[in-house]
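Lab notebook, bench 4. Still working through the backlog of constructs that have no structural model yet. Next entry is a single chain of 377 residues. Request: give me the structure tokens for it.
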Amino acid sequence: MTTDTARPNPERFLTLLREQQRGRLKVYLGFAPGVGKTYEMLQEGHRLRKQNVDVVIGVVETHGRADTAALINDLEQVPRRKLEYHGVVLEEMDLDAMLHRRPTVALVDELAHTNAPGGRHAKRYQDVETLLQAGISVITTMNVQHLESLYDIVERFAGVKVKERVPDYVLAQAHQVVNVDLPAEDLQERLRAGKVYPPERAERALANFFTEPNLNQLREIALEQVAHVLDRRRHERDGAAQANTSARVMVCLSSRSPNALRLLRKGARLADRLGAPWFAVYVQTPGESTEKTDAATQRRVADSLALAQQLDGVPLTFKGADFPSAVAAFVTEYGITHLVMGRPQRPWYRRWLGPSLVDRLLHTVRGVDVVIVDTTT
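Model written out:
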């Protein structure tokens, strides 16, 4: 079922369609497969079609679910593009055909999907961005665990490394986000009834990812995410400032960061909740100059800064004589209020040799909240 309080009026979306030049994005967000996101998306497609809106299916994955498949029949579909990969023929949304057909609204399932090699883009969300830029509005679906900034959180409680991820900015630019909710017990019952996966796969799913604690945690995250989006929209509608201009977040990176990606996701979520801009700063000391850093390390730093940009951060390299003084200089120059850094990997016996990096940093940087992130697990 769809949470009524989080569900925007379909007529409001229709009004937005008629006012826009760039396409509008609407996302049906769920906490797990099988809650009914695709079903809700197709139902909206039928509602819009009855109001004489030109709606076309770009791609829908039914996963063998009869109720979902039944909703496809009366909607126009653009034939999928066939691609051969390692001797297997795969079908993907035909982006060029969609652009040529140019409907008012495209229904595009599974936003986090990775495209088969040979297409214009590697990821489906990039296809969606192209449709939006062409003035085609898109209604899509995704599960909350595919958000890039949630990767570490989901891995920690569910033990699952989510491979297909969507940058947070994609969801942030959505004009409407609808929470498709279902009690965890009801979803487990759907699994047992074979309405989500075949029986043999359903049994494995119930024993692993679809445990009640996992589902309840994901459900809470999805509800929190939608509530945050709605709160941000409310502030925008009421004319409030879109950003907290007094807050600035800095994520400190070095070539030795054991898990820089976790730091970045933590910083991105903190900044998002504060409504503040954030900076991913590679602090380059003389010991980390290009001449003294191997190519693999340089690539790792570059990948980290690229992820920061995907998470709507500002990637920068900042040089200094040593780490604490460089951070202090950046904090002063950019008005940083929140500092995110990893827990230093320091052997216990080195405590006798003098203050730690964190101690030196806290002594140097005053009036800033410092968040220490454990990046070892």
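Notes after review: Residues 212-237 form the longest helix (26 residues). The mean pLDDT is 87. Flag for follow-up if needed.
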